[in-house]
Amino acid sequence: MFFFRSPERLPAFRTLALMAALPFMGLAGAARAHAQTPGTCAPRTDGSNPCPSALRLPPTQPLSLMAQIGKAMFYDKALSGNGQLSCASCHDPHHHYGPATDTPVFLGGTKLDQQGRRAVPSLTYLDREPSFSIGPDNPVSEQGPPPLAPPTGDAAHGPKSAANTSSSAANMVPQGGLFWDGRADTLQQQTLGPLYDPAEMASTRKRVLTRISHAPYTAALKQLSGMAGAAEPDFLLNEAMFALARYQIEDPNFHAYSSKFDAWLQGHARFTPLEREGYLLYNDPGKGNCAACHVDTVPSNGLPPLFTDHQYEALGAPRNRDLIANHDPAHFDLGVCDREPDGRKTLAPYCGMFATPTLRNSATRHVFFHNGVFRSLRQVLDFYVLRDIEPERFYARGADGKVQPYDDLPVQYRKNIDMTDAPLDRKHGDAPALNDHERDAIVAFLQTLTDRPGH
């Protein structure tokens, strides 16, 4: 199917994405998968699923011509400022479209010596990401964003747990959008960020226009762009970005749903004893409580869970002193409130908040959190469990020898940090919510979320 759009219709990209998703959603009258909840459908002692789900998975079909153009562009190094970087350089298909290296941020720029601003996220499972908004926490995950609402003061935070996500429904929370701060609403908008960033692909509008006008895919791109594409450079550029987005939406490798967990959901696999234990701890509101934000249940529409609630959290991650920008003690990356020029005032209740990423394929990553400060899932679990119990494990000491907790967030914004939801509700002297073995068990469960090639 070919889509022909005028410039004024380009913001309607979400509508086109929804059209593409219609086969994914299933035909009217098809049997709906029931909503699976760990409380009623806990895995049996042999690791099997007593309540298998009929998941609605995306169909496998050939890429449209527009998506084929997007694929060629995804691997086209000539689009970058130095001709050495493509989208795939940061988003490696062999690493689930995330970084292949263990450096906290990617080195880019015209000389490949500039540190990127933040850790490179995966491009997988972004096709169902809602647009950015600030509004009431949705008690049911993945049901679409609320209307945009301004901050009303301090970000009061009701408790949220894996067993009762609706208890936080009154919270005014940022949600949706792409990048760590939600500054783009569509994949089409997202493509321009890395392309023009001087520390990433370091390209320019002129260079990109020259390349898309003299590339192996140019004839096909102009054919689909029609007379407007031939006459208006901006229109052709928009069509090219649309092609990159179509590739990420249509190619099933970006949303394969081929993990062991997906097979378990459908009754085709069994957890090992350690994976089963980790799954139960993951969903236990008094232990891991991970599912409060990284939702793992199948909703009533039968779509596979994305392991994110699309919301934002201030977790007080330690300052990563390997980042050159952080050598300046006055420099802080404040996430959501830095998405607009005056955001540190207008969005102050959300300073320090970053997107909750999907946990799918997280076991294959080498760096975690927006600043890449942690290097393994186990380190991440340790931080969640021991942040305020043993802060000396994570935070640096000042000149006076005292530990400086939350050292990557100015004092005036530390009230935004989540200290309510388990296991982040512990204080110095408390017993940790998870012991060492239990943390290992959750890591074992998270490893079941890795997509398997050829499935």
TrEMBL record:
Superkingdom, taxonomy of origin: Bacteria
A single cellular component GO annotation: cell envelope
Heme as UniProt keyword: yes
UniProt entry keywords in alphabetical sequence: Heme, Iron, Metal-binding, Oxidoreductase, Peroxidase, Signal
SUPFAM superfamilies the UniProt entry points to: Cytochrome c
Xref: Pfam families: CCP_MauG (PF03150)
Subcellular location, record wording: Cell envelope
N-terminal signal peptide: 1-35
UniProt region (Disordered), positions on chain: 123-169
Presence of keyword Transmembrane helix: no
Location of the Cytochrome c domain: 273-450
Gene Ontology MF terms: cytochrome-c peroxidase activity; electron transfer activity; heme binding; metal ion binding
Name recorded for this polypeptide: Cytochrome c peroxidase
Phylogenetic placement of the source organism: Bacteria, Pseudomonadati, Pseudomonadota, Alphaproteobacteria, Acetobacterales
